[in-house]
Specification:
The protein has 8 helices and no strands. It is an all-alpha fold.
């Protein structure tokens, strides 16, 4: 039964896996503003949205899977905006995505002690890049960082409260989301990182896949 379930999941992930391979196979430099690279960048996230669409789901707004789907929708919007060099707008779209993920994970139980190290890391990163930020980002980045670190915190609480493979994978993936954004911040605002795009996109795609897979045990669960 477990083998059948794993095979079914793998089949449903094929659109994501193949489009991820296409992205890394054809996008060999760091282009911004090109339509074809924007499409290739977004396709893996559409693959994950399709993965959710292959499962039966209640109303989008009142179930776990629906909120993850909304998070992916705003994420793919952010992907496109970032690739078109619209950084503040892309960050805004990703901020809404983090809110969707937080809503999926829930706010109870609180377990605030899990949040402390993530908020500390977020503050440290903001201090490191502060001098290179323009006025808009000096205001917007800490808001986004708060939402991102809150998302990681809530995923860890979910994994500790309902400790199964997919929730633990989701928590790790959520942390990798923060790692990916950390690479972006350092590369863009502190010092260039050699081959930064590969670090950013591998951690990002892994993160979104891990978060998406958390629906497997909870697709029909309502609040």
């Amino acid at each position: 039964m477990a083998k059948t379930c794993a095979f079914s999941i793998l089949l449903k992930l094929l659109p994501f896996l193949t489009t991820t391979a296409l992205y890394f196979g054809f996008v060999t430099k760091d282009p911004e503003g090109e339509l074809w690279t924007t499409v290739l960048k977004c396709l893996p996230i559409f693959g994950l949205m399709l993965f959710i669409g292959m499962h039966k789901m209640n109303s989008i707004l009142d179930c776990y899977g629906g909120k993850i789907l909304l998070g992916l929708t705003f994420s793919v919007t952010g992907d496109a905006l970032l690739n078109l060099d619209l950084f503040p707008h892309g960050m805004g779209a990703f901020a809404v995505a983090q809110i969707c993920y937080i809503a999926a994970y829930g706010l109870k139980p609180v377990k605030f002690y899990f949040a402390i190290p993530f908020y500390a890391l977020g503050i440290a990163m903001y201090v490191v890049v502060f001098e290179k930020l323009d006025v808009v980002l000096k205001v917007g980045l800490p808001i986004y960082a708060f939402l991102l670190t809150s998302m990681v915190w809530r995923s860890v609480v979910q994994a500790s409260t309902k400790p199964n493979f997919f929730n633990i994978l989701c928590a790790f993936g959520s942390f990798m989301f923060a790692v990916s954004d950390g690479f972006i911040a350092i590369d863009k605002f502190y010092t260039p990182i050699p081959h930064a795009r590969y670090y950013i996109m591998t951690t990002y795609y892994f993160a979104q896949c891990a978060i998406t897979l958390s629906i497997v045990n909870r697709i029909g669960e309502t609040d």
